[in-house]
Amino acid sequence: VVASCRVVTSISDIPTGIPVHLELASMTNRELMSSIVHQVFPVVTSLGLNEQELLFLTQSASGPHSSLSSWNGVPDVGMVSDILFWILKEHGRSKSRASDLTRIHFHTLVYHILATVDGHWANQLAAVAAGARVAGTQACATETIDTSRVSLRAPQEFMTSHSEAGSRIVLNPNKPVVEWHREGISFHFTPVLVCKDPIRTVGLGDAISAEGLFYSEVHPHY
After folding, report:
1. What are the chain's domains?
2. Beta bridge mates, 181
3. Do 186 and 179 form a contact (C-beta atoms < 8 A)?
4. Which residues of 76-213 form beta strands (DSSP E)?
């Protein structure tokens, strides 16, 4: 089943059995964010967010690395991975929890990560790569990636976790999408070719998530 999108105005408008994607937006109310985590996350299938939203989420819900006040430059991949893992482990679907959440698409300027609960999604490699591609083309307002107008700024090596003994990954230019697994959750990382002089940035996060969903395959468990 290829994921599709439908805009609704409230949770009650969502028909039973329809996969739902929630794209977070920046906010400053921790109580509101905490209520979204506990009340809204269990009834959505997929989540999209950036580095500011991810950090505010873990601060609001006392998750991993919540003592961090802000990212120091490029968000640390291992820290991001730890928070994504925690969201899916604590608030995602499991045998003991009646939650629909099985997918998170994280996007920051220089890289993206797609985290999915095993057995619920397929084609993650193509999905995360598609999101990264549209980030470069939309920002530069081009139909395809123009290599003269983009640059690679993603970390060339990183740890997959800081909460446990993670692996050290060294990027291979010939296989830029990296995959790793942790307790029933799969992670797909891709660097982004960043537009040097961006022209169109409004709605870029929405475009990234939408493109990723377009290439995703969801396995219904309803």
Report:
1. 6-12+20-218 (3.40.1190.20)
2. 186
3. yes
4. 103-107, 111-117, 121-122, 150-152, 157-159, 168-170, 178-182, 185-191, 193-195
What are phi and psi for residue 150, nearest 5 degrees?
A: -130, 165
- Please tell me the pTM assigned to this model: 0.92
Residues annotated as catalytic (active site), given as ranges: 206
Taking residues 164-181, report their average pLDDT: 93
Residue, of 8 and 153, whose pLDDT is higher: 153
61-87 pLDDT per residue, tens: 999 999 999 999 999 999 999 999 999
Measured between alpha carbons, how far is 178 from 185 in angstroms, rounded to an integer?
Answer: 14
Place of tokens 């470069």: 136
In 10 A of CB 70, how many CB atoms? 9
Is the pLDDT score of 105 beyond 80?
Answer: yes
Cα separation of 56 and 63, whole Å?
A: 10
Cα–Cα nearest to 21, from 2, 38, 1, 43:
43
CA atoms of 47 and 148, how far apart (whole Å): 33
Helix, strand and coil content of the chain, in percent to the nearest 5, comes to 35, 25, 45
